[in-house]
Hints:
The structure is a homodimer. The first copy, chain A, is of the alpha/beta class.
Amino acid sequence: MYDTTLRDGTQGEGVSLSAEDKIKIALRLDEMGFHYIEGGWPGSNPKDMEFFNRIQQYTLKHAVVTAFGSTCRPGVEPARDANLNRLLEAGVKVATIFGKAWDFHVTRALNTTLEENLRMVRESVAYLKSHGLTVFFDGEHFFDGYKANAGYALEVVKAAVQGGADAVILCDTNGGSLPLEVFQAVTRVREELPDVELGIHAHNDGEMAVANSLMAVQAGATQVQGTVNGLGERCGNANLCSIIPNLTFKLGCPTIPRENLVYLTELSRYVYELANLNPAANQPYVGESAFAHKGGIHVSALMKEPGTYEHLDPALVGNTRRVLMSELAGISNLLYKYKELHLDKSSPEGRQVLDQLKNLEHCGYQFEAAEGSLELMLRKALNGYREPFQLESMRLILQMWEGQPIHSEAVIKLRVGEEVVHTAAEGNGPVNALDNALRKALETFYPEVAALRLLDYKVRVLQEKAGTEAQVRVLIETGNGKKTWGTVGVSTNIIEASWQALADSMAYGLLKEHKL
Amino acid sequence: MYDTTLRDGTQGEGVSLSAEDKIKIALRLDEMGFHYIEGGWPGSNPKDMEFFNRIQQYTLKHAVVTAFGSTCRPGVEPARDANLNRLLEAGVKVATIFGKAWDFHVTRALNTTLEENLRMVRESVAYLKSHGLTVFFDGEHFFDGYKANAGYALEVVKAAVQGGADAVILCDTNGGSLPLEVFQAVTRVREELPDVELGIHAHNDGEMAVANSLMAVQAGATQVQGTVNGLGERCGNANLCSIIPNLTFKLGCPTIPRENLVYLTELSRYVYELANLNPAANQPYVGESAFAHKGGIHVSALMKEPGTYEHLDPALVGNTRRVLMSELAGISNLLYKYKELHLDKSSPEGRQVLDQLKNLEHCGYQFEAAEGSLELMLRKALNGYREPFQLESMRLILQMWEGQPIHSEAVIKLRVGEEVVHTAAEGNGPVNALDNALRKALETFYPEVAALRLLDYKVRVLQEKAGTEAQVRVLIETGNGKKTWGTVGVSTNIIEASWQALADSMAYGLLKEHKL
Lengths: 516, 516
């Protein structure tokens, strides 16, 4: 398992890792049991050099840090090539260098002869070997080269072996190869060079990087290069978060120690967090939705037997099963999710709530991300629920004078038990003013509202094309420091929709604090 | 090409399409040349029924609308099965029904015998056929079933054929199968049933859905089921936006008409927009980063020869090459787009507008869909523009009493030339009230405002996670019956953002009428 998140991964759009981030990720990959961590390209930028200097202060348990670079340039001896010498200065035991395996690239991009390219590959590998390094050779564009001129692509691989390469990695640099092509090409190299360790380095431009990596392994490759979450240029590199569990659980290949796979989901989210990217919810194995079930039939079968609609136990990769609520939900989803409410499938309340749910979703409500509103609805239907407050009236006044920002003021009148509270507040916008006024009104009765925080506010205009009279759906996410919950409101009036979601968000927060 | 975005796609977490959205997507898929569009599961929810009723009013050019359902239940005759009869009521010519192909599912989830399941499959297909429908049979969990008990899985397929199925679709329902397994299983079915049309329906739980679909085609399947952008439950369905170009350009298979592939990127973004999901930038073929190059070596080689680091010409799928770290390309486009304004890149006004544009985009403005606002900004900077009105003050009052809808009133004071107009209006929500008041104020001066119609109103919350103080972007689309234009506003206050976009929409409409 050869990780290149820190080098090829950072070529991805929007991916930027500080030297500190890179150190943190390297230490985490080491703990997980990765074999090789490609730290960067020494000399290409100051950040990579800082990484190689700093990582030497750590004693890694499993992983070997590698440095990336290219062969010497055309017409240059390896010993006089600045980039090759930088690899020697990086303080690593393993260097990975790439050379061109596609004749078109040699003549068009490098502007040199096919013979000279073979010399560059052979001598560059030999030079690094002569300095005591382990050397991996990345055959750039190997598969495109193989399709265009199989003989030459194989000669390049053989030149690396002649130079003493410890492994030859076949690269699908442009990411457009198909699984059967990869299988056939790797099989051929395997036959021609039975004693050489082979690797695969795939990109995802045809949405094939994971499949191509597996096919290469099935054809005899033993080293797999990829990145955490498939980060990388264009459509990304091969995603190790999918390759590792596929190899381990589906093909029974050794990868990282099996007991560490339960930290895979955590690793994925950690790297997203450091790279400041939003995790892809639908990412295989480790995504938030990867084991989330919405269809009613699926949920009812899952309750009998999880294997019915899951290809794998989510716990094996540290992920969890989730059951979503929506109009597609059967009653099984509700029962599973609200076990503690002792809802009975055949009870009139159960059916009534489900019908109400389907009707509301048809009108534009969405309860998947609004569990708070859903639970309040269930509790109201089950009669055991006392609302913590009720709205008597609300007024919002927004004023703007030329050249000045809008002034927003909210006035609200609530009943809390027997008492009436009438108060006002300003805010940065109408919803913020309402939020402030609501908290002010509730504070004296429920001091714990101070701990509730609005974390997210989303607006979706439904049935667009109706101009400003369209329906609006507001989703609010609130947290109390321990857990978070979503609430929803729908109306043609954005203020009314916001009020519904806001009132639910507070009511649900109080419910959880008070067990009302 | 069988699209199930409207049915299986909506099982995806966070995917919720209104009946109106579904109609729009179906019409777009038809224009693209898809062969089948699975509209929904009649009877499972009111939205799907509404879709089947409404779609009958349209004459489609290429596509046939299909309805999805299951076989009859155990122990029930097809003619007495409510769900099967719903398929007959949906008014479609093609029905796709699924049945279980995995023995474990038959005994554990369905709680019936293997024999009874074969009867259900055979008789359900025959029943729908006897009513004149074309019937596709989805063999649920076929690949898992084939691994567990190949004989029984094949018997299920044969039962469907005996019932008269027009095609049998092999489903990787749990999404965990590997490419070689799929290839081998489809090859076997092909051999056993050489005259039956085969299809593939794959899910992406192992990140293999696109690869598995291609392998099935290479083994003889001719129908591919999938969704736009791979939307779907858990990790999604097979992504048709990758499968179609892979089949077309890499394997030379017929899919949708080749000339329509240039609209593939547009289709992908349209569906994301209607589903209110953020497009995945690194999505193969159609993602914003799919042809974005960051590495210096890659960019310099690309300038010599695009094929060096691109597996495909992005124009073939309607996407574009991007070179990152160079915003200058966008600015050249701007100069090109507003040629008639004679904007000079090196003039002080030119520089000023470009700086303003960059700052505004950095603050969250987006002018791609707001040409109206952009042209007004350019004209203001170039001094030749006289504003048709100016705001002096604005007041919005929203009031709500318990159990009643919100009452919205707007008061505005404008200067139009030398005159001041002060007026008020009510509306269905705050923005509608503002819109009504603004029109009322302008009517006496510019009677042509009566012809301007707000067509679309969109709200995006930027910088989420800041709760109700987040920045909000409002995009408004307006038309005068001849052309349409977009305008934009950004503020922490949704009312202020709406006002900016609204004022621009009227000002731009008047500009075009008056040549002001």
